[in-house]
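anyone seen this seq b4? input:
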Amino acid sequence: MRKIILLLFIGTTVFFQAQTKGSCFIEYYELFISRGVKAIPDGVQNVIVTVRDTKENTCFATMGHIEVKNGKIAGKLTLKNRAGEYVKPKTTLHPKYEASINALKADYSITNGMSHNFLTKDMKVVNVFFIDYLKPAPPSLTEAPDAKKL
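predicted toks r here
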């Protein structure tokens, strides 16, 4: 099981469909915090995956699938390419997750519809957002009619 989970995460590949200057993670994070999330059931779920390169101050976001069991990430991640196919990431988690000394601790729990940070072997920071369970935006107010037309 540990090997399956360690193969989960991500590479920066041609599959990343959006690139912005360091903000895509913050935008999704703030959206999920402000709107809240419904409970995420077990099974394979649609996700948005953000990958941040802190050296370059860039952020990529792409779509993917990942398995959830008992409120935790439990299976392999696949990323959606431009042809609409789901493929394995090109990179894995940082080797320190497997180390016995000075090991990084991977937290596979899901909080507020998001994963915790994961570090890849190429030093990118990865997060997974469970987009299908984001609560809808509250309805906006209606505009009053123009006073001149009353």
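Residues 2-149 form one domain. Confidence is low (pLDDT under 50) at residues 1-20. kinda curious what u guys think
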